[in-house]
Amino acid sequence: MKSLKRMGIGLLAGLISMISVSQTAFAAGSDNYVTGDNNHRQPIPTSYIVAKTLNNIGGYEDKNQYFNNPQDLFIDKQDNVYIVDTGNNRIVKLNSKYETVNVFYGPDKAFRNPQGIFVDDDGDMYVADTDNSRIVHMDPDGNFVEEFGNPKSDMDLSESFMPTKLIVSKTGYIYVIRGENIMAIDGKGYLRGYYGQTNIGYDFTEALTRIFASEEQKKFITKRLASSYINLTLGDDDMIYATSMEREEGEIKKLNSIGTNIYRKYKTIGNSIRNPITDFIEKKILKAVVAGNTFKFGEYFDDYGMYIEPIFTDICVDEKGIVTVAERLNGKIYQYDQDGRMLVAFGGLGEKKGTFTRVSALDVDSRGNILILDRINCNIQVFEPTEFIQLVHQATSAYNDGDYAGSYELWRQVLAIDENYDLAHVGIARAYYKQEQYKLSMEESKLVGDRDTYTMAFDEYKYVVLRENFLLIILIAAAIIAAVITLVLLFTKYAKKAYWSYLNNKEKKMGIGQGVMYSFYTVLHPIDTLEGIRYNRKRINMAIPFILLAAAFIVRMAYLYVVHFPLAPMELEDVNPIFEAVKLWIVPISWIPASFMATSISGGESKFPEITFTSALSLVPFIVINVPLMFLSNILSKTQRSWYGVFSTLAYIGLFLILFMAMMILNNYTCKKTIGMMFVSAFMMLVIWLVLLLCYVLTGRMIQFVISIMDEFKLNFL
User: What's the count of helices (H) and strands (E) in the chain, helices before strands?
Assistant: First the structure.
């Protein structure tokens, strides 16, 4: 079932990427780049260059000169390099000059398919001897010290012990990946518990199944498991950094002493207030960003625009806290700071220098060099940092150490090399914030769309202004409230007047002004308004629906330009009026033919004109709510987005309720029948959307075909 679901996700993502290639903003020709929260690739100066490639063990005497399916790599505090040469069942040790100084085959030369290694500060090696179902502890000279098998425990550990990746903490605990958990083993070989398991959450369907299913049926229920871990490493901060298959919280984790992930999480990120429709499409169907500002680790589209779900095969952390991961499917190397912001992406699939076939491991030495192990090419490429990325690392480290003035100066040097490096602007904005220069922080963060930093600075700036101008602000607020109350009373008065005027004047057709105010009476008395249309359907003015559609579009466009920056659904340069019109109108407009077809075959009384009129009325709540909301947003920030989002969602609830009541009143249906016909109409709407989408794609293909024919004709005959 999961494979079919992912296949469907991939097909849909591929279709959407064909329709709007600009949304993925591929930059296949860019060797080094970053992706912000909008997931567009932005080229940056070269950050790492290949300084050396290691294909064999050099002049060291051994029967196997070349690596064979190497699986892991570790660099100790003295910059010695340890390679788990799995195919040759050995550990190769190199010095800091990358010269082979020793080769270890294990106790009695008995390593069998080793897949992981950790070296402590004393130089002792801990090897995951996978096919021997043990962890071997050796001293710096390769002498056997001890081994750890399946840990001793009162729990049932009947599952086979096949260690692959491991670390050893300063307390002497061995942490080993075991599927969805990280197993902790003490120095005496006892199990100390499982660590870092992802919460699988509550599943309502499964709960119902277990309540009502028979005992025989329960045997066939598949047990839900948490996402598996892939690799792990130990940071200088004694935190465990790990990669996993977890798609909800994030594939990269930083686990504290109790196994809680404290790294940047997907669920806590989001630059905008979502609406239910786009939220479902972007988060539930694609599970990735197609259009919008949601953060993801890695990338969900490869260099060719194909949808992928990242698999990070290894992770390392340097002394500055810089996190580097290797992605298997697109061969990219991604680097993040302690806040989960991408610093650089480089590499890719290929055979040339600087690219990889299948990265199995990576690590970083004290000089900042990244060693990347390719198990298919059986080599190690040594990547040396350039001045640009060194400045980035220094600026990030200075900020983490509390040196905000130093961080500011370093980010200025980064901008001197690349003025378009967004993270430098973010760093400067955060430095301003820490120095209590809130207005400057807001201006800097707004340049690069950093809503999180802007929100922090705005909240502080707001309190400063409030303290300094408290009395004046109270007076202005009182005047605004009085004005709003007056406008609401006038609005209610004229809407009510238009309603009764339309009902009482039986011989006169609805006027334009009268029709507009009548429409807004829907907010006050929706049932009375809809019944007035039903019993006076011949006198409605069909210009009103188009006026309402236009008014809703104007409100939407005004909202995008007026709404406060941290609550904006998108950047202004990304605003597409056509796309916004489609998003706004697609439901009420497609509802017209869908509802007409559904009611026509079920004894409905409604006709096309009144369905069109009431469908346009469904946008009235959107207009009424968003006009004051766009102005109110300018005193709010992301910290108030939860309840702010409630008001935004009310517009869509109002749309649904008006369509529901219109179908029931115009067709004289019972509530039960109305619910059934709503589902039928919704299905017909879906069919209409699919047909239109198919026509759009086929039209695009036809245009491409005609253009290619014309190009071929010009090439051969002109």
Answer: 18, 25
Whole-angstrom Cα distance, residue 375 to residue 381? Answer: 12
- State the pLDDT at residue 651: 86
Residue type, 48: Y
The predicted pLDDT at position 284 comes to 41
For residue 566, what are the CA distances in angstroms to 38, 101, 135, 318, 636? Answer: 14, 56, 51, 33, 8
Nearest to 175 by CA among 187, 163, 166, 165: 166
Structure pTM? 0.78
**Could you tell me which residue, 201 or 317, shows the higher pLDDT?**
317
CA 417 from centroid of its chain's CA atoms: 29
Confidence at residue 222, expressed as pLDDT on a 0 to 100 scale: 61
Give the E-state strand segments of 602-702 in sequence order: none
Separation of alpha carbons 367 and 543, rounded Å: 72
**Into which CATH architecture does domain 2-385 fall?**
6 Propeller (2.120)
For 675-703, write each residue's pLDDT tens digit. 999 999 999 999 999 998 888 888 888 88
Q: Is the pLDDT of residue 527 over 60?
A: yes
pLDDT at 1 over 60: no
Q: Is the pLDDT of residue 508 over 90?
A: no
Give the residue among 534, 530, 531, 495 at the shortest CA–CA distance from 515.
495
How far apart are the C-alpha atoms of 491 and 496, rounded to whole Å?
8
Pick the CATH number of 394-468 from 1.25.40.10, 2.30.110.10, 3.40.1010.20, 3.40.710.10: 1.25.40.10
Please tell me which residue, 220 or 716, carries the higher pLDDT value.
Answer: 716
Reported as a pLDDT band with limits 50, 70 and 90, residue 39 is low
Burial 299-312 (b: 16+ CB within 10 A, else e): bbbbbeeebbbbbb
Query: Distance (Å, rounded) from C-alpha 91 to C-alpha 4?
Result: 41
Is 248 in contact with 264 (CB distance < 8 Å)?
no
* Identity of the amino acid at 77: K
Domains of the chain, by residue range, sit at 2-385, 394-468, 526-702
DSSP 74-127: EE-TT--EEEEEGGGTEEEEE-TTS-EEEEE--GGG---S--EEEE-TT--EEE
Residue 158 pLDDT grade (very low, low, confident, very high; cuts 50, 70, 90): low
301 phi/psi in degrees, rounded to 5 = -135, 135
Closest by Cα among 471, 479, 545, 477 to 512: 545
**At residue 18, does pLDDT exceed 60?**
no
Name the residue among 323, 322, 274 with its Cα closest to residue 294: 274
Per-residue b/e over 209-218, b at no fewer than 16 CB within 10 Å?
eeeeeeeeee
Instruction: Check residue 707 and give its pLDDT.
Output: 85
